[in-house]
Sequence to fold (441 residues):
Amino acid sequence: MTQTSLESTNPALADQRNDASFENVWQELNWRGLVQVSTDEEALERALSGEPIVYYCGFDPTAASLHLGHLVQLLTMRRIQLAGHRPLALVGGSTGLIGDPRPSSERTLNTPEVVAEWVDSLRTQIKHYISFDGESGATMVNNLDWTQGVTAIEFLRDIGRYFRVGTMIKKDIVAKRLNSDEGISYTEFSYQILQGFDYLQLFRQYSCTLQFGGSDQWGNLTSGTELVRRAENAQVHALGTPLITNSDGTKFGKSEGNAIWLDSELCSPYAFYQFWLNQSDADVIDRLKVFTFRTREQIAELERAVEEEPFKREAQRALAWDVTSLVHGEDATRKVIDASAAIFGRGELGEIDEPTLHAVSAELPSATVPADEATAVRLLVDTGLVKSNGEARRAIKDGGAYINNEKIDDGDAVLDSSSWLHGKFLLVRRGKKNLALVHRS
Fold:
């Protein structure tokens, strides 16, 4: 695939800027909390403050979509690119066939056909977040290109001889697995050699001198720096970004046990927006630093808003707008905001498109009811908004029951077919905030 065919079509890239109040991008990365661990900090700051360098980050196709952990890396790539440096976006067609070791157990190996399909999916997603134009335009690479033709004997003789088993087994993730009941296979144990080989190849082909990734990958990152040092007698850099956690110590990027994917088919723009909108006051400023391009001054203003008027949730709304617009586009974000307003009676329900209503239904209690049995009493009971027919009738009598934001007076009347949104949905509300969506069977 050529570089021009990978040109990003994301209009948000044109408006992105690093914060000019920082002396260099290294200082901004530190302020944003994106530096957990690195090789020589002073040398790395000099490198990022000087003439353009080539750097890379790798993404393994272990799923059909990238998620929020990957978004941290993509935005870090973009920030460094905006400083004039040139990114290599590596999609692991070979390492994806192996999978890096997990803390708990062996990975399930996917077929080459599935991995190849996911490689294409990730390449499409990555091009949305970095630019492939100009002197600092990115290049997409696939490590299958330089591994598939290497024989086992060549790999052991030319690459394996630089690695020491004693060092390899001291890597945190390997040590944990070795001390577990399951142990670790030679396949996953060898992953760090493959990733080191990537760095060596990119150093040789592109003069790449910086690799970064999550700090949990530090052992794999330093495998590459050590291999380049041993094989080429050259010093290169590695940077580990922190794993993002919530203020209560729980893992960030999960919503009721589900990963927050960047693919709209796996996580709708509505669910995505709501995830960001629901960030706590304790976490929202850190999220703004990591996931948006707002300046230090702008974020300070939002921090004051959190302290002085937290009920307005101004910082959360800014965060949700910025990240959802980046990932899904401004039009999709506006639709989500309009839909949220309409659901709570501050807009026209009829203007919510069907895909957004489907997304809303995944976030609300729901029930499926035949059209000829759709009375307000049944809808309230079946959706769980009330526990009994009697409670439903009392809610209706007290004026606290709504269908499609219209107050209900007769709980036993079957709703007219024209009431169904897109012929499929009814929005049921009890009081101001208790909502559910009914599907027509």
About this structure: The longest strand covers residues 208-214. Confidence is low (pLDDT under 50) at residues 1-5. The radius of gyration is 26 Å.
